[in-house]
């Protein structure tokens, strides 16, 4: 079964998509739409580091809403528009992952959905039933 959701504790979608689709079976799979550094009120800070922290927090909020944890993340894909100091980026991501090591990909792209968006993160998670 597939369940589409837009948690109330995250900003509404900014285009025709849902924040998460959960697939159930022997394992519960959760696929998130790309999470950006947008606050619940729709604001997006200019600083890409702040956007990274908010986007990761939005992933955490999606996981919480689906009764999953950081350790259930199986894949993260990071899309970055502007350069960010690598060590600072790694520290922020490591703090978020709490020692968990999912598969990850990091890409630099020319642009994302709107000029204000500097970071977008795709995430997949799976939990044993």
From TrEMBL:
Checking Pfam families in the record gives: Ribonuc_L-PSP
Per the database entry, which stretches of residues form a coiled coil? 49-76
List keywords of the entry alphabetically. Answer: Coiled coil
Which named protein is this?
Enamine deaminase RidA
Source organism of the structure: Lysinibacillus fusiformis
């Amino acid at each position: 079964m597939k369940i589409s959701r837009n948690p109330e504790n995250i900003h509404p979608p900014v285009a025709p998509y849902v924040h998460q689709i959960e697939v159930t079976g022997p394992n519960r799979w959760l696929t998130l739409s790309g999470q950006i550094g947008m606050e619940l009120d729709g604001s997006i800070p200019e600083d890409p580091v702040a956007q990274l922290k908010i986007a990761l927090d939005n992933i955490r909020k999606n996981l919480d809403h689906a009764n999953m944890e950081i350790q259930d993340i199986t894949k993260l894909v990071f899309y970055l528009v502007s350069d960010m100091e690598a060590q600072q980026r790694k520290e922020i991501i490591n703090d978020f992952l709490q020692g968990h090591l999912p598969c990850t990909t990091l890409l630099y792209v020319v642009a994302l959905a709107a000029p204000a968006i500097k970071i977008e993160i795709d995430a997949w998670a799976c939990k044993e039933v």
